[in-house]
Design the sequence.
């Protein structure tokens, strides 16, 4: 079960996400994520959706998990990962409602989402987090392990299982209909 | 006449690329610190991360941003340069290849844009804009350009009758539509005139100017200020969470154009406005 603690102004949460934690998160909350998350961006999303359509097994169970939209730079010697900031989330919008319907609970990226995604976030009780784009060096310090688990042929776009330690994000779209980008 | 070896180009390009992705130009860094002072709350928190990120990139010797871009090169090739080592373009690409390998940069280029989209694995080819000048030097400006901001850029062929207001409306509309996607605070490069492709190259070139340095023509300098004020009044702010600084600067470049045309290109640059230059 994920815990909800506060550290200064920030809420500390753990993956996988529970309904209780998701419901407590509100737009604008500064959150520190701990635990495992999975990376996937354009090409991996396309492949995941193909697998789902073919009833084939997925590289990881979506239930309660968070997907981080990132394609890191290669890890230099002695490092777990290279620079690892978020990519633009809207490119994943067309795939997202399906993943949410199958149990995905969180996404980390940057930029606004479509109306369909917002509706799905509300309907399936999920959350969209904003990480600071272009802060890949800073964010990499909060990733303490990285393991490639699928689609290695995609290079930087392969699916990796990352272990987060106090990874800083902001709640951008919550399950109550709140959207930090509403004014845009 | 001056002889320039292939290896000189390769090593210069490699060094420029490896340094550009870790160090921000001083003027960009200063502009971000200035923005931090002006904002508050969440927006200020984001700007703090962006500023801290620069220090961490240097400490950890890793790129500022995982999107180490497609390398865009502006090359001024002197007429008095002798190059006897085959195709110059191959030398530039080899420099990119070495930087990607030795600097642990991301390979973000696919060979075919539409069908196979297979990663070339070494981030080549780079994009080169050559100019020929009377000199015995090769000047290289290397700008790694990420896709987050590049994707939010736009070009429109306006009618001359749409004039100043048409240009302003298009620039504002482009920045507004981009919202938080291109990693604001951005720099907005605007290319006006020329033709279809010339306006796009001018817009890109405009991004290389020192942040906030005005156009030498006061009419365009005034337009830069007006656009900057209007863009910042949109309230998009850092990463789109709201704020008074959506753009650090608007830079316009212009060129003569056809009597029937008014091309306008808007090239958006994220806050990680990386570029570096050298002369051989």
Sequence:
């Amino acid at each position: 079960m994920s815990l909800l603690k506060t550290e200064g102004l920030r809420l500390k949460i753990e993956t996988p996400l529970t309904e209780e934690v998701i419901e407590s998160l509100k737009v604008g909350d500064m959150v520190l994520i701990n635990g495992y998350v999975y990376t996937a961006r354009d090409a991996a999303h396309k492949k995941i959706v193909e697998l789902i359509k073919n009833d084939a097994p997925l590289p990881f169970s979506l239930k309660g998990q968070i997907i981080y939209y990132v394609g890191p730079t290669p890890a230099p010697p002695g490092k777990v990962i290279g620079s690892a900031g978020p990519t633009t989330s809207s490119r994943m919008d067309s795939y997202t409602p399906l993943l949410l319907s199958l149990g995905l609970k969180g996404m980390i990226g940057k930029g606004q989402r479509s109306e369909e995604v917002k509706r799905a976030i509300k309907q399936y009780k999920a959350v969209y987090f904003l990480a600071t784009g272009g802060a890949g060096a800073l964010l990499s310090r909060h990733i303490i392990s990285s393991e490639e688990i699928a689609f290695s042929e995609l290079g930087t776009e392969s699916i990796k299982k990352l272990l987060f330690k106090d990874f800083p994000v902001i709640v951008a779209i919550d399950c109550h209909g709140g959207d930090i980008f509403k004014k845009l | 006449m001056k002889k320039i070896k292939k290896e000189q180009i390769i090593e210069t390009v490699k060094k420029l690329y490896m340094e550009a992705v870790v160090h921000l130009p001083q003027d960009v860094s200063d502009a971000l610190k200035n923005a931090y002072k002006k904002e508050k709350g969440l927006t200020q928190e984001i700007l703090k991360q962006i500023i801290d990120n620069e220090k961490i990139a240097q400490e950890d010797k890793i790129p500022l941003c995982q999107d180490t871009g497609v390398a865009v090169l502006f090359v001024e090739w002197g007429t008095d340069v002798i190059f006897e080592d085959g195709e110059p373009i191959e030398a530039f690409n080899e420099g990119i290849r070495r930087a990607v390998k030795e600097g642990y940069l991301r390979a973000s280029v696919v060979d075919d844009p539409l069908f196979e989209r297979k990663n070339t694995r070494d981030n080549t080819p780079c994009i080169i804009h050559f100019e020929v000048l009377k000199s015995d030097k090769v000047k290289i400006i290397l700008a790694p350009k990420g896709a987050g901001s590049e994707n939010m850029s736009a070009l429109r062929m306006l009618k001359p009758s749409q004039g100043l207001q048409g240009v302003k409306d298009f620039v504002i509309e482009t920045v507004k539509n981009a919202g938080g996607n291109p990693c604001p605070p951005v720099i907005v490069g605007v290319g006006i005139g020329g033709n279809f492709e010339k306006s796009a190259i001018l817009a890109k070139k405009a991004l290389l100017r020192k942040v906030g340095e005005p156009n030498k023509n006061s009419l365009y300098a005034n337009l830069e200020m007006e656009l900057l004020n209007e863009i910042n009044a949109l309230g998009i702010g850092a990463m789109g969470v709201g704020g008074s600084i959506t753009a650090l600067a608007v830079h316009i470049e212009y060129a003569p154009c056809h009597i029937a045309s008014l091309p306008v290109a808007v090239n958006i640059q994220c806050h990680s406005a990386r570029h570096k230059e050298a002369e051989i």
Summary: Helices of chain B lie at 6-20, 26-38, 41-60, 88-102, 147-150, 163-178, 196-206, 218-232. The mean pLDDT of chain B is 97. Residues 41-60 of chain B form the longest helix (20 residues).
